[in-house]
Input
Amino acid sequence: MDKYNILFLCTGNSARSIVAEAIMNRVAPGRFNAYSAGSHPRGTVNPHALDLLKRLDHPIEGLRSKSWDEFSGPDAPKLDFVITVCDDAAGEVCPAWPGQPMTAHWGMPDPAAIEGSEVDISLAFAETYRMLNNRVGAFANLKLSALDRLSLQAKLRDIGKT
Output
């Protein structure tokens, strides 16, 4: 069975894309190598994202906020899929990715933008996790080898609408 490389993109690469990377690496480690990056990375992972992932027993070692430039050079892994998880990144002109990956947009609200109490912020991060866990799980359970490229692209887009 092939192992696919998937890159989750967001502008800051501090919350949503990091959470998606962690979920995919736990849900389907034998099928996917998940990465995350940002067009304008913050340089640090949001502490609420790290706390949530830690509480849910995700390994957090190695998670870091990084530029999408790391995935566009000659030494970058060949990407099979690139998924944007924020509207800003979806609207930006992306680099030329090695491997001509399939792309999709799974936009969702930014939990890091929530202002309010710790409870409000925790709830926003929990909702982001729930949405990403559902989408990543649906994608990871697709029988990719049984789908032609057009059908797979449609399924990727449909997952982003759930």
Q: What stands out?
A: The domain at 4-156 is CATH 3.40.50.2300 (Rossmann fold). The two ends are 27 Å apart (CA to CA). The chain is about 35% helix and 15% strand.
